[in-house]
C-alpha cells in the first residue's frame, strides 16, 4: 500500500515512520510513503502558502492555488482518494481504517493554519477525517495516526495475522484483559481459566471479559453492535453479577 502525504513539515515524519512496525513494513516492501512539501508549490520568491481570510477574522488560510498545484502534481491521473485531515471531518475509527486498508493508494492532506480555502475543499477533496473532537496545531499527527492504524491491518505487517483481529474495536468490542508470565505477581494471580489449557472455556472467558469491559467503559459501542445470541446471554449475566456486587457493597457500607 502507498501513502502520499502533503505537509508543510515533512521532517516530522522521519522518526515515527522509520522505526518499529512501520519501519519494518517499509523495509519489507509492504508499505511505502512519499512526503510532499506543500511549500515547494508556492511560486513566489518567499514561498508563501497562506493569506488573510476575506471578510477579516483571526488566523490565516491556505492559498488555493498552492494547494491545488500540489494535489494535482501528486494525484495526476490516479484515482486515489484525497483525504483532508481536519477537526471538521468524520471521526476516524477502526471501521474506516479497515475500509481504507483495502485501497492500494491514499493521498493525505495535512491541514494547517485556520483552514483551507473552501474552493479546494469542494473541488479537490474526496473525504475529510478527524482523529477526535479537539484541535491540534496541524494535520501531521493525525496523518501519522491514520497511516499507523491502516498499515497494521495490511497482510504481513504485524507478522501474526490474528493480532489485528483481536484488537479493540475490530469486532465492535473493547479487547479483553491479557496476562503473561509470571503466573503470580505481587500477590495477584492470573485467572485459573487461562492456565487450564481448555480452549473453549478460554474463548468464553475472553468474550465475557471483553463484553464486561465494553459495558463498563464504552456502553455506547454496544448500541452500535448487533450482538449474537451468545453475546446477549453473557451480557445479561454480567449485568446481574454487577447488580449483585453493587448491592453487596451497599450492604457493606451500611
In words, what does this structure look like?
The longest helix has 25 residues, at 229-253. It is elongated and about 70 Å long. α4 links the parallel β5 (82-91) and β6 (105-110). The relative contact order is 0.12. With 254 residues, it is α/β, with parallel strands linked by helices. α3 packs parallel to α5 (118-124). The chain has a five-stranded parallel beta sheet, with helices on both faces. 43% of the residues lie in helices and 17% in strands. The protein folds into two domains: 2-161, SPOUT methyltransferase, trefoil knot domain (Alpha/beta knot), CATH 3.40.1280.10; 184-253, Orthogonal Bundle (Trp Operon Repressor, Chain A), CATH 1.10.1270.20. The chain contains eleven helices and ten strands.
Amino acid at each position: 500500500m502507498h501513502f502520499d502525504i502533503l505537509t508543510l513539515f515533512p521532517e516530522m515524519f522521519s522518526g515515527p515512520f522509520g522505526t518499529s512496525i512501520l519501519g519494518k513494513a517499509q523495509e519489507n516492501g509492504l508499505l511505502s510513503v512519499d512526503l510532499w512539501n506543500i511549500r515547494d508549490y508556492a511560486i513566489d520568491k518567499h514561498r508563501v502558502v497562506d493569506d488573510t481570510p476575506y471578510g477579516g477574522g483571526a488566523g490565516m488560510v491556505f492559498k488555493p492555488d498552492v494547494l491545488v498545484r500540489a494535489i494535482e502534481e501528486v494525484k495526476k491521473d490516479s484515482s486515489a482518494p484525497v483525504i483532508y485531515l481536519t477537526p471538521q471531518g468524520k471521526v476516524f475509527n477502526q471501521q474506516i481504517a479497515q475500509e481504507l486498508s483495502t485501497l492500494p493508494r491514499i493521498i493525505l492532506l495535512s491541514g494547517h493554519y485556520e483552514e483551507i480555502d473552501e474552493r479546494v475543499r469542494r473541488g479537490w477533496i474526496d473525504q475529510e477525517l478527524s482523529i477526535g473532537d479537539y484541535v491540534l496545531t496541524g494535520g501531521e499527527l493525525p496523518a501519522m495516526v491514520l497511516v499507523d492504524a491502516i498499515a497494521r491491518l495490511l497482510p504481513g505487517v504485524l507478522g501474526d495475522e490474528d493480532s489485528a483481529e483481536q484488537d479493540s474495536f475490530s469486532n465492535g468490542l473493547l479487547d479483553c484483559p491479557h496476562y503473561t508470565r509470571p503466573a503470580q505477581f505481587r500477590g495477584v494471580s492470573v485467572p485459573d481459566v487461562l492456565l487450564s489449557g481448555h480452549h473453549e472455556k478460554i474463548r468464553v472467558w475472553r468474550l465475557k471479559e471483553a463484553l464486561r469491559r465494553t459495558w463498563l467503559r464504552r456502553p455506547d459501542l454496544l448500541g452500535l453492535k448487533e450482538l449474537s445470541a451468545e453475546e446477549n446471554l453473557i451480557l445479561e449475566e454480567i449485568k446481574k453479577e454487577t447488580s449483585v456486587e453493587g448491592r453487596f457493597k451497599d450492604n457493606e457500607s451500611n
